[in-house]
Every structure is written in structure tokens, then in C-alpha cells.
Q: What sequence folds into this?
């Protein structure tokens, strides 16, 4: 209900500052279908889509405002336009059969367009000049004219929209620009993970991900700063670049704990030592284990070299963090488990599922279905989980316009696979019996009959 309360507060005019851009905020810049996450810093040059500008004038403006980039890299809020097209744009031809694309229909040259830019003309005015100097524009159909205008606006209109970071916006940004960093996790699949994992405020959630912190940030956003999140991380430290882009308040970070995945077995066995000197050795062992068992041999040699050359010093802060996370995990009463990693999920799932309380959901993401099939088989063999479901995600975008509604020509080939289920309490098997073993079939006793 956080979004509803924010909407009501904005409608009443209360605390309007939380809906405005402040210095130091993390924001997302949008131009067309391209996104970029930046931090508002005055007098700092920002480069976005081969164009530079300063975000100083964005401070104090409402989120969702569209700015024009004027001379000197200054942002100027765009004024609302009542009429998009000119009077000339109303004239249209019946078809495009007689239009020849020979490159001679446009009277303005590249030098003329550069001169217009130097004179201070805005993108909309340059587009209008291109329309007036096109010899074939009036002969195009109405649909072709709109397509032409849209193409020229995208090229010459220097506009940028400033958005508030959110799970959907950041997921679309990563998937569009750097999908490999988030294991090709699509935003609709991420939404299903949050639903299947029953992420809500006040819960205790375990997260193991190698998606640049995007999944971690999505879980923390859904929880709203209430409850506790334990990030199980591989390597020498947690990666939280995506989570930092959300720009959470300080009290959100108070609910976040971190625990190295290499200490899970020691914690389950009750032999975890949280002294700083042992943290250093444990992290080194964790790196070595991951290199030899979770990634290929070539990368393994690189990591082993890294462990030898880069000593990791345990500090009192690391000791306190490890002890605090261990205290949260020792109860083995977590409310949910979310896994989205480039590592093989089976050993991770079988180890972390032991920290969940009975009747709690878990969800595992993988770009490929074969690792999840193995997880499914293992869970069916050992028990402790019900309602196991292996699903794939599929989405299609549609263009919805008058007389031309159809699926988009380009779409995502796949959204990965999800394995979800619910934990249950397992009974200790009786001596001499095997859990889940079916009784042997009874043999019918045949009676011999003799004929007299």
C-alpha cells in the first residue's frame, strides 16, 4: 500500500518534496526505449546516447518530467504541446507506389541542418523544416507520414525523461542494455519470482543471486523496509550495484544482512566460528571452492591467482556482520528463498532450503531448464517439498494503433525458467524402513486341485 499512500499524499499536497528530484538521488534517464541509471550531482557532465548535459536543472522538478537539452548541455523542462502536426501534415496520398527512395527528395543538406542547430533551433523546429523541404512528404500515406515524423524526432529531438528508479524500470534497463549481467532475467520473470516467493513486508527472506544486485533490490523494494533480508553471496564480498541504483532510504539497509555461501555447511553443522582470523581463511577457501567446482578451469586459474595476490583482511566490522547474519539464519525459520544465479542451482538450493521453516515458498531461476530439472528430481527424491512446478516465461508486445494493431516484429526469444515449490516438515523414518518405499505386491496363493 506504499504506492497508494504516496498517491494520496501527493493528491493532498502533503510532503510534495518526496516526489521531486533532489541532489544526490538516484534517477533513471529515459529516451525512447533506452534507459540509464545515474546519480544527481551538480556540475557533473552526464553522457547519455552520445549526448552530454548537466542534471543541475532537474533538481526540484517532479519525477517523470521531460527535459529538452539546449545549448551548453542545460536541461529545460519541455512545455506541453497541444498540436503535434502542422497543417501540411494533413495532406496525404493514397499509396506509396510512386515514391522513389533515391535520396534526392530532401532539399536540406547535412550542412544546412548543422547550421540550423548552430542557430539554436530546437529538435521540433528542425523536424518541421525537414517536412517543409521534402518533395515526397505530401505524397506519402498518413501512416507513412507519421512513421517519417517519428523517425526524425528520434534523431533530432534532444529530449530526456527523468524517472524514479523502480523494479520494473531497472529490470528493463538491464535487460535492454546488459542482459548478461542479470543472467538474461526478464522483467516479467522477475515479477513472477516475487509473487511465487511470496515476498511481502515483515518477512524473512534469503536471496542468492548473481544478477548485479537487481533481484536483491527488487526483494527489498517489495518488503518496503520491514522484515529482514539475508544476501547469500559467493566470492569475497556481495555485489550490490543494481540494489544501490534503487536509492533506498537508510532504514532499508538496516534490514539487510550478508552471509558468505561458503560458510553454510559450517553453520548447518553448528561449527561456524565468527572470529575475524577465520573469516579470512574461510573466504579464501570459498573462492577456491567456487573456482574448482562452479566455473571452468580457465577462470579457475585466474581466481586462484587472484587469491594468492590479493589478501583479504578480516575486520571487526566483517565479524559483526557475519555474527548478525548467522543469528538470523540459526533459527532455520526463514519465510522465503529466492535464487537467481549463473552457478549451478542444485547444490545451492539443497543447502539453503534447510534454513526455511515448513510451509514456506521458494523459487529458483535459471536461463536453462536442464539445471532446474535436476533440482526437481533431487527434491522429489529426498522429500521436504511439495507443489513443485517448473515453468517457462513468455511475453509478447503488441502495437496498438488505429487500423494497425499487430504483434511487434522484434520480441524476446525467452524469459528463462522458474522452479517453485513449498517446503514441508519431514518425519524421521523408522528403523529398518525406507522413506517413500512402496510396499511389495502381494502374491496370490494358488491352490492345487486334483481331478478324480
A:
Amino acid at each position: 500500500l506504499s504506492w497508494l499512500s504516496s498517491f494520496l499524499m501527493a493528491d493532498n499536497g502533503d510532503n510534495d518534496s518526496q516526489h521531486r528530484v533532489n541532489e544526490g538521488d538516484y534517477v533513471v534517464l529515459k529516451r525512447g526505449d533506452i534507459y540509464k541509471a545515474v546519480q544527481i550531482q551538480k556540475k557533473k557532465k552526464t553522457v547519455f546516447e552520445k549526448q552530454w548535459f548537466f542534471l543541475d536543472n532537474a533538481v526540484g522538478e517532479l519525477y517523470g518530467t521531460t527535459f529538452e537539452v539546449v545549448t551548453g548541455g542545460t536541461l529545460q523542462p519541455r512545455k506541453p504541446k497541444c498540436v503535434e502536426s502542422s497543417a501540411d501534415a494533413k495532406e496525404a496520398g493514397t499509396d506509396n507506389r510512386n515514391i522513389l527512395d533515391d535520396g534526392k527528395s530532401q532539399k536540406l543538406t547535412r550542412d544546412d541542418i548543422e547550421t540550423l542547430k548552430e542557430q539554436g533551433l530546437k529538435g521540433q523546429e528542425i523536424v518541421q523544416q525537414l517536412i517543409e523541404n521534402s518533395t515526397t512528404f505530401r505524397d506519402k500515406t498518413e501512416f507513412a507520414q507519421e512513421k517519417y515524423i517519428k523517425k526524425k524526432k528520434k534523431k533530432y529531438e534532444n529530449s530526456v525523461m527523468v524517472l524514479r528508479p523502480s523494479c520494473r524500470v531497472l529490470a528493463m534497463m538491464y535487460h535492454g542494455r546488459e542482459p548478461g549481467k542479470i543472467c538474461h532475467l526478464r522483467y516479467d520473470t522477475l515479477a513472477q519470482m516475487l509473487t511465487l516467493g511470496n515476498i511481502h513486508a515483515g518477512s524473512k527472506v534469503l536471496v542468492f543471486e548473481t544478477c548485479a544486485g537487481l533481484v536483491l533490490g527488487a526483494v527489498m523494494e517489495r518488503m518496503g523496509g520491514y522484515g529482514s533480508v539475508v544476501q547469500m553471496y559467493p566470492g569475497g564480498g556481495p555485489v550490490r550495484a543494481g540494489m544501490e541504483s534503487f536509492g533506498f532510504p537508510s532504514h532499508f539497509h538496516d534490514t539487510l544482512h550478508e552471509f558468505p555461501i561458503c560458510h553454510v555447511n559450517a553453520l548447518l553443522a553448528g561449527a561456524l566460528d565468527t572470529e575475524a582470523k577465520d573469516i579470512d581463511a574461510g573466504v579464501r577457501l570459498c573462492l577456491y571452492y567456487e573456482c574448482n567446482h562452479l566455473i571452468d578451469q580457465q577462470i579457475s586459474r585466474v581466481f586462484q591467482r587472484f587469491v594468492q595476490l590479493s589478501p583479504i583482511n578480516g575486520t571487526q566490522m566483517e565479524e559483526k556482520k557475519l555474527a548478525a547474519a548467522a543469528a538470523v539464519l540459526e533459527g532455520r525459520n526463514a519465510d522465503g528463498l529466492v535464487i537467481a544465479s549463473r552457478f549451478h542451482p542444485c547444490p545451492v538450493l539443497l543447502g539453503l532450503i534447510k534454513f526455511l521453516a515448513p510451509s514456506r515458498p521458494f523459487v529458483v531461476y535459471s536461463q536453462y531448464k536442464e539445471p532446474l530439472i535436476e533440482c526437481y528430481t533431487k527434491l522429489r527424491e529426498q522429500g521436504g517439498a511439495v507443489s513443485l512446478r517448473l515453468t517457462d516465461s513468455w511475453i509478447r508486445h503488441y502495437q496498438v494503433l488505429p487500423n494497425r494493431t499487430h504483434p511487434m516484429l522484434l520480441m524476446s526469444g525467452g524469459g528463462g525458467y522458474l522452479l517453485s515449490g513449498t517446503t514441508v516438515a519431514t518425519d524421521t523414518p523408522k528403523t529398518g524402513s525406507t522413506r517413500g518405499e512402496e510396499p511389495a505386491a502381494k502374491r496370490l496363493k494358488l491352490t492345487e486341485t486334483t481331478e478324480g
